[in-house]
Amino acid sequence: AMAARAFLGAPRAVAAAAWRRAGGVRGFASGLEKKGENRMFGGQVQKWTHASESTGTPMTFSVFLPPQVTQAGTKVPVLYYLSGLTCTDDNVTQKACAQRAAAAHGMVIVAPDTSPRGAGIEGEDESYDFGSGAGFYVDATVDKWAKNYNMYSYITKELPALINANFPVDSSRVGITGHSMGGHGALTIAMRHPDVYKSVSAFAPICNPTKCPWGEKAFTGYLGSVGAGKEHDATELMLARGPFPGWKDILIDQGAGDNFYSGSVNQLLPGNFEEACKAKGQPLTLRMQEGYDHSYFFIASFMDEHVAFHARNLKA
């Protein structure tokens, strides 16, 4: 096991050497670079950057290390949080207050960015719902985007390899959650890898993206057609691959006052996912939260319950 000091603030060279000894991801000559650290609820919030093979760009993620990991050799469960459109790793780290519950339950939280940044692709910064801040957790197949926009591979392969090699996590106890586009990512990635993710929840997820404007735009742009997105559509995946006997429940919270749900265009379609779960006999808890919107005020209100949900599911 890596000594506790290597991940709780050792010099970068020491951390990089420990990372290389631990068999870090191929191609990372420079390893990880710590950009910031703050004490919180007895643990540490850290921001890291690294050169990504998946995206061909620098990538940033934040991690919360609970106080329990200061004991050398202690490995704890890990919860990945995937953010929504326009967000970075900072939104959840600074606004959701997940760290309090994570400290109480002894859980690491990992929050990656939502896309590559600065790839130099024409048009990548032109709209909020495609390109920068909007990777949609797929691997692009359209030539223009295929070199850099590979967030599916980043989240499912590269980032976990980095986390498992560098941080005190138990790779057999992994959960995933997210918000909006990130809720879509959490549900679809978990359903494609149910052996890896033992617990899944979401806040206001895009549940049926092949049937809403956000998803239609993303799948057409990154994958060449809406139909190609069925493999990354939570409702379609549940119908095709469900049920998932390893999950006693899936937890989704949805604000009833969310303008992307109750407005003129329903981008989220949780009812479609609920019907798919019913059809396949998959346990689902879908909670409509009266008066709540799509913001981090909503997420922060129910984050403690989501962390507790994952802690129960990931108990050794």
Automatic annotation (TrEMBL):
BP GO annotations: formaldehyde catabolic process
Predominant subcellular localization, coarse grouping: cytoplasm
UniProt signal peptide: none
Gene Ontology CC: one annotated term: cytosol
Molecular function GO terms recorded: carboxylic ester hydrolase activity; S-formylglutathione hydrolase activity
Family statement drawn from the similarity comment of this UniProt entry: Belongs to the esterase D family.
Name the record gives this protein: S-formylglutathione hydrolase
Organism: Alexandrium monilatum
